[in-house]
What we know:
The chain is of the alpha/beta class.
Amino acid sequence: MPMKFSISEIIEIIQAKADGDLGFEIRGLASFDDAGPYDLTFACDLRYLSRLEQTGAGAVLVPESFPSDNKVAANCILLRTPNPKLSFFELVKFFYPGKPLVPHIHKSAVIGNNSLPGQGIRIEANVVIGDNVTLGNYVHIMANTYIADDCFLGDHTIIKPNVTLMEGSDLGHHVIVHSGSVIGSDGYGFTQTGGTHEKLVHTGHVKIGNHVEIGACNTIDRGTLGVTSIGNGVKTDNLVHIAHNVKIGDNTLVVAQVGIAGSTCIGKNVILAGKAGISGHLTIGDSVIVGPSAGVTSDVPENQIVSGLPHMPHKTWLKVVNIISRLPEMRKKIFSFEKRLKDLETKSEKME
Length: 352
């Protein structure tokens, strides 16, 4: 049955202030351009705030600073909140509540010796759990997942289908691992001898903090020794590779197709944009932003913004990009100047 909330109920949920009919009912949530007359949407920045009259929404979440006498908003109810986007997604939980976790262990699940399932857990079909595995309370492990020996999963952790956790992987509380990810795979560890590459034994493990979300099809490697660690609050996108013995600080964001080579230390509150590549044995300081497709080849101090390949300050990279498109024309001019200079030199020689 569709959910409905009046404006007065909504402002109680998200602690907002409303301009308009408090009894008006909101029947759904939608994007700015797709919203209908009974939907609520949000507008955070000038791209949307400047065209509020174009949305078909019945109500719009706007920043507290948005002027109350703005005429473009006359056709909809405004709800003022410090963070419209966050408030919008708080409401999503009420309009589209998730299914409650129903404790159950499927008959096809295989659970090894000395493994300790917590209270209220759900283990779905074809899950294989090794020996000496500890599962916290209210853990949800979805179908076709493999959890090797000596793993630990904290309370309220969710493992989506087709995930692999190798030996000794340690996941904190409220962790989400999306489908297809492999945690604890062997790092790229070989040594050359007699013209061949001999594999090294990997005895390390991966440790993941609390409130971490790992995207789909990530690979997080363990090392030959030691720990690959992912701090609290880290969020990775899909198709991310984190190599052996990498350390990632709290609340760092790692966007799609990023690759981090072995033994690199990433600080806290870092943003690694899509397709960035980070070389091995580097230190990336706290609050660094690495731009998309950048190649980081040396240490980056904290609070820097870098882009390009090899990486450089972002402002410098913007100048470089601007020059690149002009290089063919600049090349023609240089050839022209060289020819004119050669002609002048020839004339000068003749005059002598």
